[in-house]
Amino acid sequence: MTNLRSLATFKNLHTLVLDHNGITSHARLPYLPNLQTLWLNHNEISNLSIFIENLAASCPRLVHLSLMNNAAAPSYFNGGTKQQYQDFRWGVSTALFLSFIFLL
């Protein structure tokens, strides 16, 4: 799934859970100025840099992001090492201007 334009009408949305939707790295969220919590667990996000670049432009107030069980988000749960997980967290936090409080 790459077309999420139908969410554009929800400008006041604060929390969005899109687990198990086949969302790919090239998915583009519409501009959601009030979105604070986004869960995208168990999707098909494999290229973190492409996905985060799009996300940064779409969700300026994002505070909580969960990408568990995506290829782009290494963790203990999917065979990633501690170093890979730390690099992932650092890369996402840096790309999104250190605006995160929680990154799962």
What's the total helix number? 2
Q: Which runs of at least 5 residues are low in confidence (pLDDT < 50)?
A: none
Indicate the mean pLDDT: 83
Radius of gyration: 13 Å
Overall morphology: globular
Please bin the fraction of helical residues.
10-25%
Share of residues in strands: 5-15%
> Strand sequence of the main sheet, in spatial order?
1-2-3-4
The span between the termini is: 22 Å
Structural class: alpha/beta
Number of strands: 4
Largest sheet: 4 strands, parallel
Sequence of secondary-structure elements: EEHEHE
In words, what does this structure look like?
This protein has 104 residues and is of the alpha/beta class. The protein has two helices and four strands; from the N terminus they run E-E-H-E-H-E. It has helices spanning 48-58, 82-95, and strands at 15-17, 37-39, 64-66, 102-103. A four-stranded parallel sheet has the order 1-2-3-4, covered by helices on one side. Helix 2 (82-95) links the parallel strand 3 and strand 4. Helix 1 runs parallel beside helix 2 (82-95). It is globular.
